[in-house]
């Protein structure tokens, strides 16, 4: 853990950000992201005030226009309420921080009074999200931002983690990219609550939407997709009907409807009772991630004691067969009979 300079206590920070103090919010986010001493106390102080915001995950391939779309959405929501954007960027190999590409592209909207934009580095995490996103979302939730838009890094087939964090997932595709096939392979089309075909000014946008609709309908017929049949009114007994929307984020076409659909999905979660399932799924996933992280750290320490460096040197020098070396390490850690 690191230490954040200054005398501010977790309780004072929590009180400050709840009162709308932006310096307290920025400090709290940094404290949590760095896992500074006392961050768990801060999270504990904020926990009773969280749970009100709708977390909206936005995924899609590079070039689909996610950042522009989110900028328009944030601008739209920000006209009447406080909205936050978490932009997950690739990690800089030099600084270890976010490359800030999305924040640069959203400069105009980030200057708006009701909009808060924060870039987060992936730090090598698979799935399009960093573990810090989970905690940062809670801080922003407790600070009164609603909704919280979470833009994933756009990494392709590994980008499914956001479905565990978000209440509502939006998959953004664009005509001509052919990436809806990859999204289908990754499972993102099926698990997304709303599908958006952006860049609707292109002549093949309607055709792309039709292909996606056909693909999802086929998934319904075969029982592979979790949502209700398309083309019918929303029905809490049958499930959520995935809308497939056409937008042109550059000029703002279709953003109104997308905003309405996001709000409708929130209402459906509450009316159908699915919101409780979402909360339990989110809690289970977060606990799994945190336990795995702790176990990885403990495993590394145990392997060091068991002679990890010697084993690496022996395998590198071709003095020991790798499988036998791994089995020997496991036996030293867990006792005889392990690693067979």
UniProtKB/TrEMBL annotation:
<keyword id="KW-0378">Hydrolase</keyword>
<keyword id="KW-0547">Nucleotide-binding</keyword>
<dbReference type="InterPro" id="IPR027417">
    <property type="entry name" value="P-loop_NTPase"/>
</dbReference>
<dbReference type="GO" id="GO:0005525">
    <property type="term" value="F:GTP binding"/>
</dbReference>
<protein>
    <submittedName>
        <fullName>Methylmalonyl Co-A mutase-associated GTPase MeaB</fullName>
    </submittedName>
</protein>
<comment type="similarity">
    <text>Belongs to the SIMIBI class G3E GTPase family. ArgK/MeaB subfamily.</text>
</comment>
<keyword id="KW-0342">GTP-binding</keyword>
<dbReference type="InterPro" id="IPR052040">
    <property type="entry name" value="GTPase/Isobutyryl-CoA_mutase"/>
</dbReference>
<dbReference type="Pfam" id="PF03308">
    <property type="entry name" value="MeaB"/>
</dbReference>
<keyword id="KW-0143">Chaperone</keyword>
<dbReference type="GO" id="GO:0003924">
    <property type="term" value="F:GTPase activity"/>
</dbReference>
<dbReference type="InterPro" id="IPR005129">
    <property type="entry name" value="GTPase_ArgK"/>
</dbReference>
């Amino acid at each position: 853990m690191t230490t954040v300079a200054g005398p501010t206590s977790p309780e004072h920070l929590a009180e400050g950000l709840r009162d709308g103090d932006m310096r307290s919010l920025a400090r709290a986010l940094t404290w949590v992201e760095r896992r500074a001493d006392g961050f768990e106390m801060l999270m504990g102080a904020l926990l009773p005030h969280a749970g009100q915001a709708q977390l909206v995950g936005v995924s899609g391939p590079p070039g689909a226009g996610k950042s522009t779309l989110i900028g328009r959405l944030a601008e739209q929501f920000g006209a009447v309420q406080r909205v936050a954007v978490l932009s997950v960027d690739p990690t800089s190999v030099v600084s270890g921080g976010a490359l800030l590409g999305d924040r640069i592209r959203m400069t105009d909207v980030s200057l708006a009074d009701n909009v808060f934009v924060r870039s987060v580095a992936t730090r090598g995490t698979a799935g399009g999200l960093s573990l810090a996103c989970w905690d940062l979302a809670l801080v922003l939730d407790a600070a009164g931002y609603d909704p919280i838009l979470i833009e994933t890094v756009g990494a392709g087939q590994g980008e499914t983690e956001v479905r565990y964090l978000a209440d509502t997932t939006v998959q953004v595709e664009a005509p001509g990219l052919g990436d809806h096939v990859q999204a289908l392979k990754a499972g993102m089309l099926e698990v997304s609550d709303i599908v958006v075909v952006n860049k609707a000014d292109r002549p093949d946008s309607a055709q792309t939407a039709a292909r996606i609709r056909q693909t999802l309908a086929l998934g319904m017929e075969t029982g592979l997709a979790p949502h209700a049949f398309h083309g019918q009114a929303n029905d809490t007994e049958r499930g959520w009907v995935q809308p497939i929307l056409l937008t042109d984020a550059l000029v703002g076409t279709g953003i109104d409807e997308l905003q309405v659909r996001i709000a409708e999905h929130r209402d459906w979660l509450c009316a159908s009772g699915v919101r409780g399932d979402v909360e339990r799924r989110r809690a289970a996933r977060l606990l799994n991630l945190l336990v795995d992280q702790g176990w990885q750290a403990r495993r590394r320490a145990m392997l060091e004691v068991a002679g990890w460096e010697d084993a690496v040197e022996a395998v590198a020098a071709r003095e020991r067969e790798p499988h036998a070396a791994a089995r020997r390490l496991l036996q030293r850690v867990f006792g005889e009979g392990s690693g067979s």
